[in-house]
Hints:
The structure is a homodimer of 200-residue chains. Chain A has 200 residues and is mainly alpha-helical. Chain A has 2 domains: 1-44, Homeodomain-like (Arc Repressor Mutant, subunit A, Orthogonal Bundle); 51-194. The first copy, chain A, contains 11 helices and no strands. The longest helix of chain A has 26 residues, at 46-71. Chain A is globular and about 65 Å long. The relative contact order of chain A is 0.10. Chains A and B meet through helix 1, helix 6, helix 7, helix 9 and helix 10 of A and helix 1, helix 6, helix 7, helix 9 and helix 10 of B. Chain A binds a DNA duplex (18 and 18 nucleotides) through helix 3.
Amino acid sequence: xxxxxxxxxxxxxxxxxxxxxxxxxxxxxxxxxxxxxxxxxxxxxxxxxxxxxxxxxxxxxxxxxxxxxxxxxxxxxxxxxxxxxxxxxxxxxxxxxxxxxxxxxxxxxxxxxxxxxxxxxxxxxxxxxxxxxxxxxxxxxxxxxxxxxxxxxxxxxxxxxxxxxxxxxxxxxxxxxxxxxxxxxxxxxxxxxxxxxxxx
Amino acid sequence: xxxxxxxxxxxxxxxxxxxxxxxxxxxxxxxxxxxxxxxxxxxxxxxxxxxxxxxxxxxxxxxxxxxxxxxxxxxxxxxxxxxxxxxxxxxxxxxxxxxxxxxxxxxxxxxxxxxxxxxxxxxxxxxxxxxxxxxxxxxxxxxxxxxxxxxxxxxxxxxxxxxxxxxxxxxxxxxxxxxxxxxxxxxxxxxxxxxxxxxx
DNA sequence: GTCTATAACCGGATAGAC
DNA sequence: GTCTATCCGGTTATAGAC
Lengths: 200, 200
């Protein structure tokens, strides 16, 4: 592992946990087992290092969303793919949602730029809904509300992990992990039933 | 309005927007129209001032949750009351969810302490579910998942406001506000349908 | 109680030896 | 490339006049 990778790994860990202002270059250096000066040698400034970490994380997420829309033949497919991808991503990058959400309140412009750059095919998604509603296989629902409902139920449990774990599971780490594992098999039927898909 | 109240109002505004580390005592002083020294005269330190704001916000939220459980005769009641209260709270304190979530990652202990102190009656809620499942009026669902689903769909749209507004509504503030207004009439039927309540 | 001025500290950034 | 030592700006906190 090169020093640069070492630094990036350390920065990811610290930034993600404490955000931009909450993090200290010293802490990142300690975590990487090197000294502060070297951080500046590799990445001119704290800001630059942070941006690198940030963009890197966000760019892992978006292609999944895109793919789940493009692969889908109907809204039912979409619900399945989308939730599956998102939960998969969360498993690999559990820090990402909180990180993005935190930084978006500091400065939305960067994030919005990245997302817009991706150009998500919402029109295709809308036509999937229209088609299924017309066919009577689902109840009418507004695209925006459906999207927000799904994303909420997938992301919120990780964002609010400390509260959920403490309040619902008596701070038992294993119970919380089990809960997360169950989400896929709970959320998908929940959504499908909610939009009126016949389940068996 | 006393100076102390002036400071608290200013601190609320600044802390809530920028978090503990992101906020500057100078900015709070300016916002309150006084000088830095006075902040320390009233509240010994930044940390103390922050804690005051924090606890105050959280304590407004919890009684609502409690009430919605106690008032309910069945799970259907609960879904209605709970969502209604939460959305009401959000209208008054749109900053609170993000604030709480942000701070919980800095130091969960304080928050958990406050929540535990409240002693939420989850057992009563569980028995409401059991009763309705036994009566065949809803499909079986695990309490924890139901709670998380509901809270997610209510809180996430406000927490993620900057993304949602930008990505789904082309940064149109009014469209986003309308969307929030619609949430109540969307989320309640969504949940009820999802748990198998007959809707007409 | 409220102010101005300043102390004390901290953290990002740089210089320069190796 | 990596280190130690240091600078410098900014922020919290305090002293002391009014």
